TrEMBL record:
Xref: InterPro entries: Acylphosphatase-like_dom_sf, BLUF_domain
Molecular functions (GO terms): blue light photoreceptor activity; FAD binding
Protein name per UniProt: Sensors of blue-light using FAD
Ranges where the BLUF domain occurs: 3-93
Pfam families: BLUF (PF04940)
Coiled-coil residue spans: none
Upper lineage: Bacteria, Pseudomonadati, Pseudomonadota, Alphaproteobacteria, Rhodobacterales
Organism (species): Yoonia litorea
PROSITE patterns in alphabetical order: BLUF (PS50925)
Length: 137
C-alpha cells in the first residue's frame, strides 16, 4: 500500500456555522481509524491542510472533505506518493491563528504576511507547517 501526502487549501464558508473543536474531534476519530495523520492550519479565513496515509484512505477522506459545505474554493495543491510522513504525530494537529511568532515563521517562507495560497508553493508551505507544528508538540 502506497503512502501518500495530499495538500490543499480552502476558505471558510462565511454563510455556514463552524465549530472548530467539534470539527477537530471528527477529524481525529476518522483519521486515527484509518491511520491517516496530518495538520490543519486555520487563520480564521483560510484552511491549509496536509493529509498523510494510505492512498485509498487519503483519497476517501479528501473526497469527503471536498464535499463539505463549511468551506469553499477548495484547491488541491499536490497529491503524491512519499517515502515518509512529515506529520506522523497527529491524527490531525490543529494550528490556529497568525500570532506574532507564527507571523515570523510565515515570513521565513513567504514574501509577505498575507496568506495568499495562490502564491504559495507547496514545499514552502510544508516547511511552514512543519515549523508551526513544533508549537503543537
Ligand atoms: C477544513 C476541513 C477539514 C476537514 N478535515 C477532515 C479530516 O482530516 N478528516 C475527516 O475525517 N474529516 C475532515 N473534515 C470533515 C469532513 O468534511 C466530514 O464532515 C467528516 O469526515 C464526516 O465524518 P462523519 O461521517 O464521521 O461525521 C474536514 C472538514 C473541513 C471543513
Amino acid at each position: 500500500m502506497n503512502l501518500t501526502r495530499l495538500v490543499y487549501y480552502s476558505q471558510r464558508n462565511p454563510s455556514m456555522s463552524l465549530n472548530v473543536p467539534e470539527l477537530l474531534e471528527v477529524c481525529k476519530r476518522n483519521n486515527s481509524r484509518m491511520n491517516v495523520t496530518g495538520i490543519l492550519h486555520f487563520n480564521g479565513n483560510y484552511f491549509l491542510q496536509v493529509l498523510e496515509g494510505g492512498r485509498a484512505e487519503v483519497s476517501a477522506i479528501y473526497h469527503r472533505i471536498a464535499a463539505d459545505p463549511r468551506h469553499i474554493n477548495i484547491i488541491l495543491m499536490s497529491a503524491s506518493d512519499v517515502r515518509e510522513r512529515i506529520f506522523p504525530t497527529w491524527s490531525m494537529g490543529l494550528h490556529e491563528g497568525m500570532g506574532e511568532e507564527t507571523k515570523k515563521i510565515f515570513l521565513r517562507y513567504f514574501p509577505s504576511e498575507n496568506v495568499n495560497p495562490e502564491a504559495i508553493n507547496v514545499d514552502s508551505l510544508l516547511d511552514f507547517l512543519q515549523d508551526v507544528s513544533a508549537e503543537l508538540a
